[in-house]
Amino acid sequence: MSSFTKAFSSTLGKKLIMSLTGLFLSLFLIIHLLGNLQLFKHDGGKAFNEYSYFMTHFAPIKIISYLLYLSIVLHAVYALVITIGNGKARKVKYAVYKGSANSSWSSRNMGILGTVLLVFIVSHMSNFWAEYHWGGLPYAKYEMSLTNPEDVKVTNIPYEGKPLVHSEYVDTQAGTQVVVAKDLYILVMELFKKEWYVALYVISMIAMGFHLYHGFQSGFQTLGWDHKKYKPIIDVLGLWVFGIIIPAVFAAMPLYVYFFK
Amino acid sequence: MSGNMNLTLNVWRQKNVADKGRFVTYKADDISPDMSFLEMLDVVNERLVKKGEDPIHFDHDCREGICGMCSLYINGRPHGPKRGITTCQLHMRSFHDGETITIEPWRAEAFPVIKDLATDRTAFDRIQEAGGFVSVNTGGIPDANEIPIPKVIADEAFNSATCIQCGACVAACKNASAALFVSAKISQLALLPQGQPERYRRVQAMVAQMDAEGFGSCTNTGACEIECPKGISLTNINRMRRDYFTAKFFKEEEIN
Amino acid sequence: MVLDSKIPEGPLAEKWSKHKFNLKLVNPANKRKYTVIVVGTGLAGASAAASLAELGYNVKAFCYQDSARRAHSIAAQGGINAAKNYRNDGDSVYRLFYDTVKGGDYRAREANVHRLAEVSVDIIDQCVAQGVPFAREYGGLLDNRSFGGAQVSRTFYARGQTGQQLLLGAYSALNRQIHEGKVKMYNRHEMLDLVVADGKAQGIVTRNLLTGEVETFAGHAVLLCTGGYGNVFYLSTNAMGCNTTAIWRSYKKGAFFGNPCFTQIHPTCIPVTGDHQSKLTLMSESLRNDGRVWVPKTREMAERLRKGEIKVSDIKEEDRDYFLERKYPSFGNLVPRDVASRNAKEAADDGRGVGASGKAVFLDFAESIQRLGRAAVEAKYGNLFDMYYQITDENPYEMPMRIYPAVHYTMGGLWVDYNLMTTIPGLYCLGEANFSDHGANRLGASALMQGLADGYFVIPYTVGDYLATIGPKPVDNSHPAFAQAKKDTQDRINKFLSMKGTKTVDEYHRDLGHIMWEYCGMARNEAGLAKAKQMIRELREDFWKNAIVLGENEEMNMSLEKAGRVADFLELAELMVDDARERKESCGGHFREESQTEEGEAKRDDENFAYVSAWEYKGDDAAAELHKEQLIFENVKLTQRSYK
Fold first, then answer.
1. pTM to 2 decimal places
2. Looking at this predicted complex, what is its ipTM?
3. Of C337, C352, C565, C583, which one is the catalytic site residue?
4. Is the Cα dihedral C185, C243, B85, C80 positive or negative?
5. What stretches of C480-585 show up as alpha helix (H) in DSSP?
């Protein structure tokens, strides 16, 4: 075995994989969130659909997205491997176990929380990502006045068995900038109107909050990053940004659409 | 005597490694709140012996919280409900009259039960044999004050060195991980100048042995730190990881 | 047999160097042909085992605990003395030597003590190199403190757990040798007998405490590093498992027992609360620096206090008897351990003790808290106060602590010569288990020093001399003496297991403790000792008739382990009483009421008792024979201690 395989097969190394993939996924969440904020714009989904196109066609982002899929898989697989290993380390369980006396609930339930998230991610990707790629979504044509950017005309183009070409051009005759894009926005709006989906989404975001509240700072510890002066900053980030703000803003989107659109 | 308590004990009894084991309930009547937990078991045992029943076996020795031999998982927590003490320092006044107390051995595959509440913790010795030392022979040593050591470093090394090797960290951990123990031992020497020459060999050797013994993975729940009778901090675990990854990814000398 | 202490000729300061030169060496290539058995893995045992293995000998090390690190050296709190003179305060090897001889009340060998002081310096270097985290100053150099009333600061320490840190150092050295394959470690093995073949110690018999297997092990030499026998008093500051079996069995095989009656009683322990009590907890002596010891002036008041009719705060200043300050105006509360202990017992015996049992005196910090402020007291003694609070549930910041003396250390042990060899060739005894360096009283922070001196720096030289003499001829356990010793041990185990009486072994142990504490404790007299001897005999007879031992041999069996240890204590106790009876003087921890000054202080009798008593076993039914090793003082002048 090489030094690296030995390192990654040790109990410390397996956790290193969890940490690196987990922190990478956390970082991605920020990007994902910033993009999704486009949903709150009143532009008939133009910005959101442009953003979706960009994310799926810009080469460096595509590479990162493959890394992301790999991270999700590795994170889940190693979680399983580590959990099985930990189960073997204590075959006979305690009859009375008072974990609440010495550790946080989320730290003891990362597996359950992670499973909820995995289910969510799978449904999330099949609902949006797979639909976007192969689902035959309708298109939207945005005609934005060159003189008044607020004036946007939206035309929905139903899917007719064959995808259109994404295009952006300036119509000099009409004095408009025209964008024809796959309309993911309309799919989002549809799903966010469904009660069960909103519920799944909100529950998953709560799970994500708990998962990251422990996971974010734990990821740093696993790397061995620990410093009296900087650890408190990471703890605060883990609680407020990753444990509360990010999940809350994500959860706000379906709620906003459900109640206000 | 007035103020004495009547308790019910739910004790794990297991004749030997091969035995499956079971809980047995005992009445512990007329227990003085001034007794230590182990003295309470002594009293119960004397009564059992008088009845011709096999006494409850448990490990103990110094009874002042330093040898690390006593263990016991009491009501769901290693060394019982109070923090910063071992079972031998736990007094019965921490319990109330009529209480039922469940007493289990440390549970971990790396700590097999020998009999009743006594477990085999020699895995800890083997981890230290793998590298928990400074390779100096007796004699021919330069003066003790030859190398000044900053007080903060010496104090931090001492904090790591206070570990009494009781295994409460493993017992408390939901994963039965030995990370706190192993890292405390690694840290003590990693901090001191005397430990530097073998620093990266040591961490690799000791982590490899820890894994070979079958302890679980640390998932940073922090339970070990809370339950450690000597207050060993999680920082040690992070220091161990730092050294381990440095050794594995950046140092050319390779061990295990 | 004439006792030969083998003290080298020449000036005191040169004896050890010259002796080292005169000792025979073992050829480096031959060292691996020798096997040395080390029993016990405390400071002396672990350091000896590691050092011998480093030299190339094969070592077999044994301990009854589950790990070598749990030996009771681990519990030492205060510190370790060394004549480093880092403080520039006038310390020197000679001063440490002098203080130790004087502190031992002139009942130790000059040459041994001087060697101890010489090597003390190397011990600190060794420990630091191993990574022992001693306390340091901001400049990065080692800190020292004055300890146990010493006039110089020569004590090195690691907060309140110097013993643990030193033992972990020795244990790590031992681990390294186990890893190298030079030491084979046998944990949870208890030595139950010594094998003497052809007049030499050649092996031991052990019982595996997990499986019950009785085994014999052969070696070219056997080192006993098995600690003290304070548990003969049942209650002591020793660990529960501390016992006399290894040295007692060796005594019965021909090793002389030196000064068995010399016991140290430590004054500042947490008092006994009831019959359930299994052990006593020591609190550092440093508490006496700021605490004032007192009891109520009158018995009536003490009794009302005990009954709870009045509170401590109801006792006015003029009704309190600060007896140490009253009797010893210049030393006050800082008188030596034996004096403080004896006076506390006198007060309690006079009916003026405090606490529910009356077996305690107050150690009061009220005045210090007022003078220094609570924060200052907390900084100095916070951990001790917490420990006290934890055990007693009383807050020492608000009410005075209750303290009482407890058995702490045994200066006596197997008699050894300058080479640490007992009267059985090839059998060595190190650390607290031997009688050597502390005379009749051990000074604070000297026990750790002696254990490590013996193991690191004495035995590696002296055992080589013996091994070179006998030659590297292989040893094994084929000699009939092995089979015989094994059979004797098995018979003894079977005898225990057949005992189905009515009284538990613990009850016998407790009874023995009461006898010893009452008649052979802090103060001893002829009538009491005679009575004790009779009581011990009766108790021992009863033990063999009426004790209960349960279970089988082939399992972990606490009852059986305990029975063997208590059986040996029951024999040792009688020898202690004999020794105390025979020594009709007071010295150090041994106070004979018949031998006191007009003020009631210990009075030595150098004319008649300046010797080491070395007892020879003559059979179970015969009296032990006393041999005397005269102590010759060429360098120090014998003076009467006075703390007025």
1. 0.96
2. 0.97
3. C337
4. negative
5. 480-497, 505-519, 526-546, 558-582
